[in-house]
Amino acid sequence: MRYIRPLSMEDAVGQLAGSSGTSAILAGGSDLLVRMKGGFIEPDLIVDIKAIDGLSEIRETPEGFSIGAAVPCAVLGESAALKKAWPGVVEAAKLIGSKQVQGRCTITGNLCNASPAADSVPALVAAGARAVVVGPAGRRTIPVQSVPTGPGKTSLAKGEIIEAILLDKRAPRSGDAYLRFIPRTEMDIAVVSAGVNLTLDEHGVVKSARVALGAVAATVLLVEEAAQVLIGSKLDEATLERLAKVCAGACRPIDDKRGTIEFRRKVAGVLAKRVATTAYARAGGK
Amino acid sequence: MAGVAVSTTINGDTVEFLCQPDETLLDVLRDRLGLTGAKEGCGTGDCGACSVILDDRLVCSCLVLGAETEGRRVETIEGMAHGDKLHPLQQKFLEHAALQCGICTPGFLIAAKDLLAKNPDPTEEEIRFGLAGNLCRCTGYDKIVRAVQDAAIVMKGA
């Protein structure tokens, strides 16, 4: 096993692409080290990306925010500008693990770990976040939902690293929110989760919407039909009921010890209603 | 496996060590440096018994590689007291009998120190949330929370 700490993306990509055997990218390590300890992975090469220039920064650009792949979730919570623009993304990231884990874990790691129950992913998908992928063939920007392809699996090719997550600059009257159901108050894995992102017109009518559900399928679901239910509405009771029905119907959950299929479907609807209501209020809707 | 040479700062002292690439900071502290205050409870970041502060961030040392600490600052329980003078949190843990078997105590003290450094006047709820990453199977937490509240009062007056 080798541990390296490259100073540039080019070096990191080159080392990963040129390695034989199993390699792993290390940012916060809160998934990787647990998997190593459990014997689920024995990497021949560990590429620590934290010393790469810019990867530990949140940058505010004219287009929005660029969150470096090595930025711990605790830092997201300390960024007043990010919290103001994307409160749903930040509240989702802040739900991952304890204080100790928050100081290490990253949203990029959460995305690449590809758990269907990852907390930050539904919020990122709802937010329309994009991932900047750097690899031997160069740089490309892809929607975050195209990164996880199934539990523990991603679309990233050998040698590819996500450099940053991009969030757009906010249009006026926009709001997002995230909620999960767990059987305790914190420190647990989502049984069901939902993220909603809305933009309203000047009359408080929903102009655009994105609805994402977590832990109810092999990957996080972007539910277009649910967004269509919200668009053109002011989130009246009938709209919320339809939203719940559409979300429950979109789920393709499994039965496991954390929840049954029936329970997950019902809770997905309930959470979608609550999250949409919060996002609407944050967007300034009444 | 080739060893990794690491130079870091632990409790204010420059420390150099050699470790394996997959060796955790917790193992380095305990097995190479003789700093056995941080405990291994779960080894998977769930129990907080191995908590240390790494560049002003509370972390589980079982989820950090020793090699990652190159050029960084680590604070462990061993650096908490000043000579014979206990830190107010340590004193209050004693006074409130906020420990029984003691395995979780170093982790709680480090986590509480980090909590009070960032929030000198926490509510009970904030203390309970702040220490949720530390598990204690003996005390039921009430005495720990009260000790932290009391220490916060002392530290504000200091």
TrEMBL record, chain A:
Pfam families, per database record: CO_deh_flav_C, FAD_binding_5
Record keywords, A-Z: FAD, Flavoprotein, Oxidoreductase
InterPro entries: CO_DH_flav_C, CO_DH_flav_C_dom_sf, Diverse_Substr_Oxidored, FAD-bd_PCMH, FAD-bd_PCMH-like_sf, FAD-bd_PCMH_sub1, FAD-bd_PCMH_sub2, Mopterin_DH_FAD-bd
Domain FAD-binding PCMH-type residues, every copy: 1-172
Gene3D superfamilies referenced in this protein's UniProt entry, alphabetically: 3.30.465.10, CO dehydrogenase flavoprotein, C-terminal domain, Uridine Diphospho-n-acetylenolpyruvylglucosamine Reductase, domain 2
SMART domains in the cross-refs: CO_deh_flav_C
Flavoprotein listed as a keyword: yes
A single MF term (Gene Ontology): FAD binding
Keyword Oxidoreductase: yes
Name of the protein in its database record: Carbon-monoxide dehydrogenase medium subunit
Automatic annotation (TrEMBL), chain B:
GO molecular function list: 2 iron, 2 sulfur cluster binding; metal ion binding; oxidoreductase activity
Keyword list, A-Z: 2Fe-2S, Iron, Iron-sulfur, Metal-binding, Oxidoreductase
Alphabetical list of InterPro entries matching this protein: 2Fe-2S-bd, 2Fe-2S-bd_dom_sf, 2Fe-2S_ferredoxin-like_sf, 2Fe-2S_ferredoxin-type, 2Fe2S_fd_BS, Beta-grasp_dom_sf, Diverse_Oxidoreductases
CDD domains reported in the protein's UniProt record: fer2 (cd00207)
Residue ranges of domain 2Fe-2S ferredoxin-type in the record: 4-80
Ranges annotated as spanning the membrane: none
Gene3D superfamilies reported for this sequence: 3.10.20.30, [2Fe-2S]-binding domain (1.10.150.120)
Protein name (Swiss-Prot/TrEMBL): Carbon-monoxide dehydrogenase small subunit
